[in-house]
Amino acid sequence: MRTCIATRQVLPEKVLLRCVASHRPDGTVVILPDPRRRSPGRGAWISPTVDAWETAVSRRAFSRALRVPADADPGPVRDYIGHIGRDHPRQAERTEH
């Protein structure tokens, strides 16, 4: 069981998306989706919905959970959520049980 950083709901890992921080060569920080849950480092868990992503961004939940600067780019997570929602609509809806 994990807690979604946006909704604060405690849910099974299989319905949440793990995200990790990565440092780019130019020194900026980017938040990346980790659907296989194998990337090293601290992880943050989020419901894979656009609404949850927007809530997490507005509350700066990614930077707080991952202990990275507030200007870290969460865009790749949004892109991934949009991709799974478009290609696998059932997976994007799993958090609404």
From TrEMBL:
Coiled coil: none annotated. InterPro entries: YlxR (IPR037465), YlxR-like_sf (IPR035931), YlxR_dom (IPR007393). Residues 2-71 form the YlxR domain. Residues 80-97 have a biased composition (Basic and acidic residues). Residues 73-97 are annotated as: Disordered. Pfam families: YlxR (PF04296). This is DUF448 domain-containing protein. The lineage of its organism: Bacteria, Bacillati, Actinomycetota, Actinomycetes, Mycobacteriales.
